[in-house]
Amino acid sequence: MFGRVQQRAGKDWLPTPVRALAQVLIRLKAGDQAVAETFGSLAWAKGASDGERGILDGNVEGFKKHDQVWKDFEIQATGAVVYAGLENDFSIPRAREILCKIQTNAFNRLDPDAGMTGIYLDPVLAMANHSCMPSAFVSFDQRNAVLRAWRDIKEGDEITICYVDVTLPNKAARQEALKLYHFECRCPRCKDDLDVYQACQIDPALPLNSLSIQPDLEKLRNPPIDRSKVSKEQLDAIYEAWKTLPTTEGRSEAEHMKIARKRWEICKPLVEARMWAIEPLTTTIMQLAVCWQLSFKMVVYALPLLCFVSTECDPFKVVTPFLPWRIKGIVTIVQMLALTAELTASGALARRCDHEGLVGTLATADQVTMCEGLLRLVMKQGGDSNTGGWHVLKQAKAMLEDIEKLPGRETETAMLRVWEKDPEDPEASAFFHDQVIKPITTLASLAPEILEDKLGSKK
């Protein structure tokens, strides 16, 4: 049985939902009242018709409509019962129903770097309804879940969360991801099939970006895109064509570049329309930036791409600036600036990069002040939350402490501290814009030229 479950999952270990189900069954047998109230009584789990079914709904009838899924659930439920040594204690059909409840109501416990590391289930959080334009989101601090507002929420407003990746490119992709939950989303974004630019324009969180790496609210409200260049049908065709290409995971740099050039050609209509935040163009750029971060030859070129994604893509896709996605993007830029600052100081920058605009921008910028300013922005956006255990914030705090120890930076640090305390202070605000935002914007502006040079048809 263990082997059959492994084969279905394609892993060398039991799938996380199977292990979660085994834990639920063990706790039910041990008499855990909270688990019984949530999933169903021990008598019901053993097969009794009159037992309490628990407060969670498992959408069992919906899962039954998908034959292969239903068969897989039977294998997984059997595996959990056998794995836990409870063959004589629980009904397999009821174990499968509990698995349905887990699959419907649990949250993926995501590590920002490693992906899914477990699942989290809280019966109260599970009651939150879905919206592709949610008012809140769930983040994790070690073993604790934190429900944070996505924007201002008035008393009496419904608190909604997004059950799927909020950055999915179109209604069809989001509805496909929502099949697990057996309902059709009718939120404002899905009702009118809005793209990320249209959704951003009506998002109540948009004004929060005045304190972000992209503070140009007018640009967010009226993006400089040309919709006449590409239709919705073309957008869908681009996305489908892009998905047919090989993934870049585990590829060499040379192989990645070959795939990236094909991706770039497919995305050309989006490039011409300047619709950088529409998938799959953003992912094409971001994955190339990650590849270049690990390349001795191309590492300097990763910086403008990261700046571009953080200023021209992410603010439209993920409007709220203090979401983990966007905070991590800023920290990654700081890490790259720390490297380019060393290359600049040693004189090695020009030997590693032949782009005059990029070399010139970094040579004239105060890269240490840029790092400090961005880190203070990160701490201001995320440091006052209940996610202090998140390793990205810990890393940002440690880097900021290191910069504060550098000699001869008293004036710059004092000005940035004034800005951190009061971002609207005229002198401090001007300093932050000139020393941090302006060079980031300049670096980002170089990305389209670099991308075309490295990926365009001439290559």
UniProtKB/TrEMBL annotation:
Pfam families the record matches: SET
Q: Its GO CC terms?
A: nucleus
Family matches, as PROSITE patterns: SET
What are the SET domain coordinates in residue numbering? 71-164
Which superkingdom is the protein from?
Eukaryota
The record's section on InterPro entries has:
H3K4_H4K5_MeTrfase (IPR050869), SET_dom (IPR001214), SET_dom_sf (IPR046341)
Q: What is this protein called?
A: SET domain-containing protein
Its lineage opens with: Eukaryota, Fungi, Dikarya, Ascomycota, Pezizomycotina
